Amino acid sequence: MLSSRQDSSQASDAKYYVGLSLLPGIGPVRLSRLIDLCGSAEAAWQAPGVILRRAGVEERAVEGVLARRATIDVDGELDRVYRAGARVITTVDEDYPALLRETFGHPAILYVRGELKVEDSQALAVVGTRRPSLYGQTMVAQTVPALVERGLTIISGLAVGIDTLAHRHALQAGGRTVAVLGSGLDVLYPSQNRGLADRICENGAVITEYAMGTQPDAFNFPARNRIISALALGTVIIEAGYKSGALRTAGYAVEQNREVFAFPGRTNDPQSVGCNRLIKRGHAKLVTDTEDIVDELNLTVAMQQIEIKHVIPENDQEGQILALLSAEPVHVDDLGRRSELSMADISSTLTMLELKGTIRHVGSMHYVLAH
């Protein structure tokens, strides 16, 4: 039985994405390259060895890919997703997260329990140590509800510690939250957060790029962290030790041209070494309260409270840009792809509209209509 959000045509395409995600030696970059070469996921699934090599699959891995492919029942694997109460979103689907799509190496497929919504594009990642001190717990309890009040979705990784607290406080404040896993949806880790994951699915989503049955192996989590940072306008670090995985998330955020915020800690506190070092090296902005974050991102009202003004464009260029903008952030590259304007015209028109107060820049080259 198909998910209520996935019709038969989507499912037909999705099953090949699912099959491709199960093949060894084909990561997100090679998978995207393979689909581009073949023209569709179905053609990529049927690609011969010569095309796999052209897509960058190493010679020694080609035979393994072909052998594994012969054992996979794509219809059965997609049905396995549905039986878990989940669905598949691919890069060709309209509801694939816009912020994630714009980053290099984004996954071609996401497995999703719950629901991703338009307002989730206004999000902040909150991550940190697995062993928070009372100070760290207090910072999460104060910060997350205040961010939720601003209409922000909270992104984290469902790990014990700061991640768990971030999800819980978001839900308790009546907000939305998204958890990103380093395993398959049916191998939830850590297992003690299974109940929390179910609650998240009621007002948010649990997502992963890993196929059903994928175990939470250690090397999955650094890749998982790039998705956490990519889904958000910025990443907030609340307590991180010298080797904390949260620092890797911060590194990805910098690479993705996202903001990084860190709460400072005592100089002799091992739980705050990572945060203090990020601030000292200029890799993160020092914050002491939520207003520091909100002011930096120019976020002043909850997404659901935005009322768009009726705006009359002064020329054709403004008309094209305004027709493509809404309350949902749109990247300048998307404006280029979806309009008939040159990037120079787009840039000058955006500048003029922003000076008029008609649109707002909300970070990372994303624009929305002013409210």
Question: Which key terms come to mind for this protein?
Answer:
single chain; 371 residues; alpha/beta; Rossmann fold; Arc Repressor Mutant, subunit A; 3 domains; nine-stranded mixed beta sheet; three-stranded antiparallel beta sheet; 17 helices; 12 strands; 44% helix; globular; disordered N terminus
Task: Give a written overview of the molecule.
It is a single chain. This protein is an alpha/beta fold. The chain is 44% helix and 13% strand. The chain is built from 17 helices and twelve strands. The strands form two sheets. The protein has a nine-stranded mixed beta sheet with strand order 1-2-6-5-4-3-7-8-9, with helices on both faces. It has a three-stranded antiparallel beta sheet with strand order 10-12-11. The longest helix has 16 residues, at 134-149.
Summary, kept brief:
The chain has 371 residues and is α/β, with parallel strands linked by helices.
How would you characterize the largest beta sheet?
9 strands, mixed
The CATH class of the largest domain is identified as: Alpha Beta
- Tally of separate domains: 3
Report Rg: 21 Å
Percent of residues in β-strands: 5-15%
- What order do the strands of the largest sheet run in, or round the barrel if closed? 1-2-6-5-4-3-7-8-9
> Which structural class is indicated by helix and strand composition?
alpha/beta
Pick out the low-confidence regions: 1-5, 300-310
Query: Can you give the mean pLDDT?
Result: 89
Query: Using DSSP, what is the number of strands?
Result: 12
Molecular shape:
globular
Might you state the CATH topology name of the largest domain?
Rossmann fold
Q: For the terminal residues, how far apart are their CA atoms?
A: 42 Å
Which sequence of SSEs, written as H and E, runs from N to C? HHHHHHEHEEHEHEHEHEHEHEHHEHHEE
Helix content: 40-55%
